[in-house]
Structure formats: structure tokens, C-alpha cells
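dumping the sequnces here before i forget
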Amino acid sequence: MSFAPRQIQLPFMKLITRFSFVSVIICVLLMSFQPAFGQDQSGNKYTISGYIKDAKSGESLFGAGVYVKELQRGTTTNTYGFYSMTFEKGEYTLVFTYIGYISDTVKISLDRNIRINREMKEISYTTETVEITAEQADKNVQSTQMGKVDVDVEMMKTLPAFMGEVDLLKSIQLLPGVQSAGEGNAGFYVRGGGPDQNLILLDEAVVYNASHLFGFFSVFNSDAIKDVSLIKGGMPAQYGGRLASVLDITMKEGNNRETHMEGGIGYVASRFTVEGPIKKDTASFIISARRTFIDLFLREPFISKDSRGYGNSYYFYDLNTKLNYRLSDKDRLYFSGYLGRDVFTFNGLDNGFKVRIPWGNATASLRWNHLFSQKMFMNTTLVLSDYKFSFEAVQQKFDFRLFSGIRDYNAKVDFSYFPNIMHHLKFGTNYTYHIFTPSNVTAQSGDTKFDLGDIVKLYSHEVAAYINDDWDVTDKFAVSYGVRFSFFDQVGPFTRYVKDAYGATTDTIEYSRGKSIADYYHAEPRLSMRLVTGKYQSVKASVTQNYQYIHLASLSSVSLPTDVWVPSSTLVKPQIGWQYAVGYFRNFKENVWETSVEVYYKDLKNQIEYKEGAQPEDDIKNNQDNNFVFGTGWSYGAEFFVKKAKGKFNGWIGYTWSKTERKFADLNKGMTFPAKYDRRHDISLVLVYNLSKKWTFGATWVYATGNSMTLPVSRAFFNGPIDLTQLNGSNPTTSGQIYYEYGDRNSYRMAAYHRLDISATLYVKKKKRFESSWNFSIYNVYSRMNPYFIYLDEKVDDSTNTLKLQAKQVSLFPIIPSVTYNFKF
Amino acid sequence: MVHSLNALNTRSFFGINHQRWFRIIVSLITVSVISSCEKDITLDLPQAEQKLVVEGYITPGQPAYVFLSRTAGVYDPLDSASLLNYSVFNATVFISDGINTDTLVQVDPSVGYLYISPGMLGQVGNTYTLTVITKEGETATAITHIDPPVALDSVWFETIPELDSLGWTWARLTDPDTLGNRYRWFAKRLGKDDDFIAPIGSPTEDKFYNGLSFDFAYNRGEVPYSDAEDDNNIEEGYFKLGDTIVVKFASITKDSYEFWRAAETQSSNNGNPFGSITPLISNINGGIGIWEGYSFTLDTLIAQ
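..and the predicted 3d for all of it:
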């Protein structure tokens, strides 16, 4: 046993010494805006700022537009509904706009700093006469941000829902560049990135496993969600730690005017939400719960006690809660919590064999918004994020338990600074303490424990500091540029098992608590720009570099709740991603039609996979990363998007052509192979028709190139060690079996996936406060038997004593109709 | 102290692959809500290069025997007659214990396939090199050795209370204090089974029980594709009161352990949507398969 000759260093000290240049850069940047920094403006510039919220519920509106007609410039509100602009003294017309809300115009005379808080009224979706007007209708053309999509949660609710459950993760998979892995797969894939390369944030808390039941349902209960936005390229510097995308989800704050209840009963689950003021216009709450009820039918009287299914059960539930308190006009507190669990239980009737498998996420975040001045907005966040999986089996005296998970303690401070109307600066820091629990196994009988090694936990610090500026250089050219500095340190306690070429342990290295084991620090440049090339059209480009320090290792061919997160270590280097993207955006007919073409190229380094043939028990009394192999990847593609944004009849079509490949020295004989989620073609069609106040119809159609997989190409017959005296001449024995030799990795394509879903929503006439609606959905209308997986069935034909192999394709879901009833009062 | 050696593999618990649990969960849900659908398809598989398949064993007091064949297309029919099409005829096969060399003899020239060493019997502690040179010009070599047997302290049968006459075979093992023992368990019911059968989870290593003395249980394995009645009713996987059971407890090499473990995982992952591809881990240079020296002890018990 040897000890690592490393010095103990505090991670922060390290960061400060190594990143002292960060502070230098920040100072330089801030100094360049110095004239505007203080309240006392040079010349005669003044600031207008405020909050925009919903008139009915008092909820703040994120992404609402504030447009200065005379200057032909504007800004949008941040997540907390805050905006700020600074410009020359004068008379101006401000236009406040927000998707689905009635626009609002205000004349102001700017001769001092002023505060304008605005409440906006929603347009009823079912009102025939008023068109759903988007704010600053050409936002897609005007914004510097590329590859960002805001998902309209209310619209998603009118689309077909699988088994009646509105699913935000499925909805975002309808966007170009975002791919589903098919049914029964938890992950989604953005521009050739793996499912672990998506940063999923729920009120700033990382959600590590975003789905229930292997991806059939997402963990996000749509009743509790206010905003969803997805960034698939040109990631600004305030986000980091993942290579592919950011899915930023904001929970509702809770109505602070009046108490409301909302709920629904679907095919598999029911939902209930309560929201209301604690103190009118000052504090409010929301509590939302959802639970499946299949398990209620898996017991008597529905299933007889003697039947095989008896005693088996599955359910999941979600609980979302949020409280907010306005301490003053300058300070606001938010608390958000989420708890979700899937629980499967199995009771073997015949031999007392019992299994319980619970898994799920819990997150909590506490946020404090503070307005230092009209130009400086700060948000401080404390987050706890936890994901756990466990498998518990009991038989007689025997007890077996497997568990894994990840827990994060996270603190961050983010500043928004609006020095003048040309600039919007964001800067901040972020610290996370990760505790990883890789697959741990304990087995015991009575009092005796097997030696399956100590319970292993891995610890690491992740720190980041960033600065990003959105700069309107001219009225045509805008640029968003920034840099993110990131630092990662795996620390003890830790035991490194040193292996020889045959996998035998030759040495172990012990690291004591807090001792640095492997540290990495990097600067990640981010740049995106937009050039308006004419009325309703622009060209955008972006280059971003990202580092990812935590990795998801999957032994299975699909994403499972058993997949384990691991930190970067001495063996596992941080993943590096470069993304280059160019796009052309053009709107037609007064922004009724939005179109875009985006092309991207992505270069990925330090990708990880398990070794070929690795088995779960190889991780026990070993470091998981000893079983990994490392390689590179790349992806490129083109995304075409046409959207009709207004009118009774609206929707979009997206088409993506892409190619995603991987190359690992130790996989597939070192040859390039298609990634699991390589898709040549991917089409999504979404249509919504608002027929009347009563009826809205929706339809979605998806088409995707089939999943790639590895198949056997030849087979060999083995007798197995036999008793020579039993050998019948030299004929093979009865206990012999065939085994397979596999072809090139992922060289086989399953049949294409395509599916049509339709829905109709009936809004029942409102009675006093009571509103209700029925959603009728049909999933997989033409009952396409989409391949889920393929296997070789081995059957002996008794008459000829011949073994026959038949390939079988398994599909999960044929046509499934469902009905959901929703109510609100 | 009661343990299951099976359970020491995290992937299997009393012969049940834990990944398979997820399939059970999914099928349970899908069956309870709707039914999943399966259809026959034809796979357009690429032509694969044919490889030499070597399967050879040497045990104490017995000659070495080596089966030589070649890989076949996935869809090629398989019966004892067609197997001849893949048999290797008239190959030069010899083994060496480092001092002496013996040339193996083709048992039946019209069948090829099986080669036996007439002049060399296995001996504990020896290392054996195998060389195969086929008429067609392929050469394959492999090396193995025979570890000393480790006897079980005792073997017995226990019924499962809920199942009256059915149960598992149990044994007590005292694992030697040196790390690196690997075992494989076989059982045969006299008068019922033609040969020894290895249940799922049969290969194990002492990584998790080095030097321990403990009890463990195995369920009853079955012949692949078995259509026997007791492999398709409630008795499946269990021994029964009245059975006379011979347990063969083999000490195997690391190569054997890895080969059989991979082979077993490959079989159980076929048809499992969550399983990963598990290629065979061969110890044959120039071919695929296993050249395996092992020793074993036999114990007979009567289920009562």
C-alpha cells in the first residue's frame, strides 16, 4: 500500500491562485462600463427598470419584451420578470409584449431614473377574434441567441398526450436537433450528444434523472411548470458543466392574488395542485402532486391472490412545491422543492422471494433576488440535489442490496448588470460539492456479511466563474461573448485499485479525507453573434467550448435508472466539446411564418464507455473507472424549421439531417462506429387547430431513422465440459449451446420509427369560477409497430431435432386511446 | 451461516439476472396496461469471415479431448448432420506438458470434429499447451493448466417450505486463503439427466469470499432448449425429494471463468432489451473458444 505524495490544498485557495486572472478580466470588463456604473450618469442618461407580471395571478413573466419604439431597441425580462434599460433623456413610447398576452403601450418622459412595473393580461386561447400575438414577433430573428427554444407549456397541453400525461420532455423532442431514443428510453439527445450531456435544471437545481418508468413519463408535472426553455447551441457563459444542451425549467410561483385549485384524472395518473396567496401581493405558495394508480388494480379484488401478478406493484409520484416572499421592492425570496419516486415491488409467491426497487430525485432550492440598483440585479441560490436508486431483495434469511446515486450541494451567485441599452452583462460564480455513490452492494444472511468491499463514495469540488456580455454593437450587429472558468477536483477519501494488464490488483493507493486526487481547470470561451440582413431576416453564428466533469456510465444499451454518475478522476479526463453553428433566420408575412436553417459541427473529446463485455460485478472492490475506455466523437447536421406562429391554424415542421460517430481505440477494433443515437433523418410535424371556443385539435407526426445496434454475424457451437464416458461417439452433446460472434458495433439499423398522434380538447363552458376540459388523445393512430429491440429466438424443432433461429422484433405500443379530464377553480 | 454463492454475482441472485428484473418490470407494466407485440423479421446480416472454433478440455486422469469446428452463419440450420458441414477434418492437433508432447487422434475420420490424446492424461499442477494446424492452413494455439481440486465440506438438499418436495442443493465450502480460486458447479440427477448440467451462475470466483467458510445453494440448471416436462412446469429449477444428485465441483482457471461467465451473460442477455452486447472472451490464439484444464470432486447426495 502506498500513499499519494500530494499536498492537501483547499479547493478555493487553488481556484483563487489559478484563476486570479479571472478577476482581472472581470475588472477590465467592468471598468470598460465604468461611466455607467454609478447612479450619477455622465451626460444625461437615465435608467428605466421594473418587473413585469401576470395581472391575474401576479406571477412574474420571464422573457417578456420591453421595446422602445423611437430607438427601435428593446430588452426582455429575466427569469424573475425583471428588466432594465439605460438611455438618453427624452420622450419615448414603451411597448410591453409577451406571448399570449395583450400588448401594452406606455408613453414616458425620461428625465430621471424611473421604475415601471407592469401587469399584463392573458389572451384567452379559445377567443376566436383575438390572434395570439407574440411579443416582438420577430424575436427569433432579432435575438443573438442561437439554438434556443422557449416551449409554450399551455400549447403543449393541447397536443396529444401519451396515456393522458402531458410530457414536456416528449414535447421538446418535437424540436429540430432534439431526438428521442424511442419508447422505453429515458434520455433525449441533442445534436449528437449523449443523454448525460444535457443539463436539466428545475428552478436552478440539477435533475439527474428526468424520467419515470424508463422514459415513458417525465418527472415534470406540467401543472406545476411555468416556463421551459432549451438551449441546444451557443450556450451562454452562465451555463456550463454539460456539453450538449441546457433544459431550463421554471416552476410556477403560485398565484398571489387568489387561491386556485387545479387537477386532472388521466389514464394512469391523477394530479392535484393548490396555489394561492399567503399574504396578498407579497407571498404565495403552490403545491402540486401527481401519482399513478396502476398499483391499486394489481391487488384484490382485481387480481386473485393466487395469480402470478399478485403482490407485484409499481407506482410513481411527484411532489412540487414553491413559496415566494417579496421582502421589499428590492428583495425577494423563493423556495422550491421537488420530490419524485418510482417504486417497484415484487413478491414471489412460491419461495418467499421479495424485491423492492425505489428510485428518484429530490431537489430543493432557496433563492434570494436583490436589486442593488436599477441596473444591478443579483440572484443568490442554495441548492440541494439528490438522486438515488436502490434494489433490495430478500429471501428467507438472505438479504441483498444494491444502491447508487449522486448528491450535490450547490451555491451560486449570479449578477445581471445593465450599464446602458447597448450592453447586458451577466457574471457570477458557482460552487458544487458532489457526492457520488457508485453501485454499492451489500449481501448478508442473518448476521454474516459478505466481503463486497466498503461502501464507496466519491467526492469532488466543482467551481466555476463566468462573465458574459450581450452587446448591441450597431442596430444590425449584436454579439454575445463571454468566458467561463471551470475547476474540478476529485478529493479523498478514496482508494485507488491499481490493476495489471490481466485485471489483478497489484496495489492500492489510499487518499485521506480532503486530499486532492485529480484536478482540472479550464477556460471555456463562448461567442455568438447576429447580423440583421434585411427586414425580418438575420444571420447568426456561434462558437462555444464546454467542459464536462461528471460522466454517466451505462452498462446497458439504453439509459436506465441504474446508470451511475462518476466524477473525472486520474483516469477519466473531463469531456471537451466544441460546437460551431451558423444559421439563417427569416420571417414572412408580418412574422406569421418563421423559418430557419441551422448547420452545426460538434467535436467531442474524452468520451467514455464501458469496456466491451464488462459486467456489473467488475465494479465491486474496484474503481469503476478501471472498466472504462476512452475515445472521441463528432456530430454534424443541418436543421430546417418552418413555423406558423399565428392564427387559428398553427404549428411547425422540423427536419434534421445529421451524422454522429464515435471512435474508441478499444472498441470496434479501433474503427469509427455510429453512435447509438446517430440519426440520419428526423422529422417532427406539429399542428394545432383552434376550431372554436370549445374545441382545439392537435396532431403530431414523428419520423426518425432507426436506432443503430450490434447484431450477431455468426455463431459457434460449444458442448460444454462433459463427461467423456457419456459421449455418444463424436456427436455433440445434448447440453451443448450456441454462442454468437458479433458484427461491427452499431452497424445494424432497425426499421425507421414513425408515429402519428392526434388529440382533441374540449373546453367545457365556464361556470362561475369553475373551468374544465377534456383531452382525448390517440397515440400511434395507425398502430405502427415501431421496433423496440430485436433478439434471436432459439427454438428446437422436435420432429427434426433441428435448432432454428428466428429474429424477433419487439414493439411496445400499438394504438392507445386515452382520455384526461382537467379542472380548475 | 447461509449464503448463496450465486448471489455473489451481483448480476444474478438465485440464478436470476438482475437486469432481467427490469424486463420483468416493463413487461408487468405493459402487460397490465396494454400488451407488447412481437413479430418475426428477417435480418439482412453481412457475410462474416469464418473462424476456427476450438473447445478443449483436460482433466486429471483423463485424456485431453478437443472439438474443432468453424463458425456458421447465424441462420444456417443446426442439427447433428449439418454440424458436420462445419466440422474440421484431419487436423494436426498436439498438446505438450512442457516435457512431453502427444498428438491427438481424430476419433472418427468420417466425422472429424473430436480429437483425443491417446498417450497423455491430465495431471494436477501441469501446464498444457495446445496447438492446432488445420489442413486448410489455420493455426491455433492456447495454454492452460490444472489447478488442484477444492473439496466441498458437505453437500445436502433442503426443501423450500412453501413447495413441499422441491428444493435446492446446498453445500459448505471452505475457500483456501489464497485469492484467485475459481469454481464451477455442475449437478446431475441419476436416472434423469444424461450429463452434468451447469445452472446459471455456475462460474464464480473467490473475490468476495476469499478464505471464508460458508454455505451456499444452487438451483437446478437445465439443458438448453429443454422440452423435458420438469423443465417446463412448477418443478423447473428445483430438485425433488427422492432425487439422487451427483455434484461436480470444479476448480477452473481464470480464462475458463471469464469464458463461461461471458457465455452465460451472452445467453441471458439475448432477448433482454436492457442487456449489452457480451462477446465471448476466448483464450485461443488464431480462433475462438476455450482450452481448459480443470480438476473436480464428485459428491453424491440423496434428496431427503
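The helical segments of chain B are 18-33, 80-83, 254-269.
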